Amino acid sequence: CAPCWGGSEVGAGAGAAAARGLGRVGPPLRRLRSLSAVTEGEPGEGREPFELPRFWDALGQTVKVTSQEATKLSLAFSRPPVASAEDCQKLSEDVQNAVLAFAAVYYWLPKGQGTTLRKMVRDATTEVVEGMIQLTETILSAPLESLTQEQLISTGGVWEACEQVSSLPRDNQAAVASALAACLGVVKDALEEMEHAVVEGQDPYSDIMEDEELGFRGNRDTYWSEADRKLLSSCLGLMKASKACLKKVLGVVKAYGKTDSPEQISQLDDLADIANEISPSIDELALSMYPPMNQLGVRLNVNTKEAFLMNFLHFCRTSHVCPPSEEGWVQFLTDAVDHNMNKIKNFTQGQL
């Protein structure tokens, strides 16, 4: 990403000269984002033999330098005297070089190391670049001789983004395990929330007599009917099966997942991709289960849910993470999904 230089007039005299120097760092950083260089750029496939340990060492070194440059930049504009134009020119060049070097190392990571891993590194890289952009813009828009709360927050944001790079998974197995754990957390939360709603969601109008003319109590929107509760039980069973699927697949990925071949890396990515479809489908199912329950909507949501779960289990069974010793629970969970789906279909047949 070649630099495109420009100025920024802020204040007057020495302050304006310093701002013009600092302003030079803004356009190159903005261009990184506007060209989607980080989020959409192609990796350096096949340019040279890739070594994962060397990549992590280089990324760690460049992110450390980036964090240091953010600190230097913030300190230079935290108190008088204002940095000279020459000093600010040096600051801007150092910030630009640090960020571009950090982004360049990201491009070393080829897709062949795993799309799940690469996405996590890409997201972390984007956070660092955007954090530096925000810090630069905050300083440019603030009084030159005062340290603002926004500047403190922006500086801390860059530090935090840089620290997160050090905690990234080191290979695609760890990356996929992390992705699966995140999906499992979403499903756990949705299930716990729905179970709590069921416990708390007793009919609040049970002590009110039925309307003499209409024949039913008012405001059924706030509770489940008896028919709803029968359907609700099977839906909760399907949510529990989803939780168990994610938990078991997470376990075998940790125990048996490998990154020794392109096929193994690709299989891990596929498991992560399918899991990423399961968690939002659980949220959609949960929303359709709240009163007033739309039983047709529930039926449509569980059909989608069933497809994801069956695909997930099938792919797990046929991948390298599932040795013969693990096939028993795959079949058990497949049967559990079938059992709950058959009950849901029976309850909602009249809605079709």
Structure description:
This protein is mostly helical and 352 residues long. It folds into 2 domains: 156 residues, Up-down Bundle (A middle domain of Talin 1), CATH 1.20.1420; 160 residues, I/LWEQ domain. It is built from 11 helices and no strands.
Question: Which structural traits does this protein have?
Answer:
elongated; nucleus; 352 residues; mainly alpha; GCIP_C; single chain; I/LWEQ domain; cytoplasm; GCIP-like_N; disordered N terminus; A middle domain of Talin 1
Q: What fraction strand?
A: under 5%
Order of helices and strands: HHHHHHHHHHH
Mean pLDDT: 83
By DSSP, the count of extended strands is 0
Radius of gyration: 27 Å
Q: What is the CATH class designation of the largest domain?
A: Mainly Alpha
Low-confidence stretches: 1-20, 31-35, 203-210, 214-219
- Would you identify the CATH architecture of the largest domain? Up-down Bundle
> Which structural class fits the helix and strand makeup?
mainly alpha
Shape: elongated
Q: Tally the helices: what do you get?
A: 11
Q: In the residues, how many domains can be counted?
A: 2
Helix content class: 55-70%
> What would you give as the CATH superfamily of the largest domain?
I/LWEQ domain
Largest sheet: none
Keywords: Cell cycle, Cytoplasm, Nucleus
Pfam families: GCIP_C, GCIP_N
Subcellular location: Cytoplasm; Nucleus
Family: Belongs to the CCNDBP1 family.
